[in-house]
Write a structure and sequence with these properties.
By secondary structure, the chain is mainly alpha-helical. The protein contains six helices and no strands. The model has no long low-confidence stretch (mean pLDDT about 75).
């Protein structure tokens, strides 16, 4: 249980609350009150004019992405989504103890599909991780088939 203490000094007159104290300086030159900070402290008032962006290179970089690059990205993502679907089907088959030669064929077909290279390092990393998982599962099934 929390106990809070509160100090009550008694009633105050409203004019005492609004008066600046002598410690605050009451608007002397060189004071560091809020109004002097807002106005910039150099006598200028309000906000200065809007400045132009230093570089618009980012905008042009966004427009520079070619349709061919977008198509490559879309194809690579689509191929690896199919790979993930095949891996999910394999996982279900393993849980049900129902792995067949058909699973091996689908894994081989997915592994043989070439994905176009993309310029996005993060996407390339994710796609290569999917390729590695696909290769590992394919190797496991091929090894099991040989036994």
């Amino acid at each position: 249980m929390m106990v809070f203490e509160m100090r009550i000094d008694g009633p105050r007159k409203s004019d005492e609350i609004n008066k600046p104290s002598k410690k605050e300086g009451g608007g002397k030159t060189g004071d560091t009150s809020f109004s002097s900070l807002v106005s910039g402290g150099d006598g200028s008032s309000g906000a200065s004019g809007a400045s132009a962006p230093a570089s618009v290179g980012g905008v042009f970089m966004l427009q520079a992405v070619s349709d061919e690059e977008r198509k490559k990205r879309k194809t690579a993502i689509h191929n690896r989504k199919e790979s993930l679907d095949v891996l999910d089907q394999l996982a279900l088959a393993l849980v049900n103890n129902n792995v067949s030669v058909d699973h091996l064929k689908r894994l081989r077909a997915q592994a043989e599909k070439e994905s176009p290279s993309v310029n996005d390092a993060g996407l390339t990393d994710i796609l290569s991780q999917i390729d590695i998982r696909l290769a590992v599962e394919l190797a496991k099934l091929e090894r099991a088939e040989q036994k």
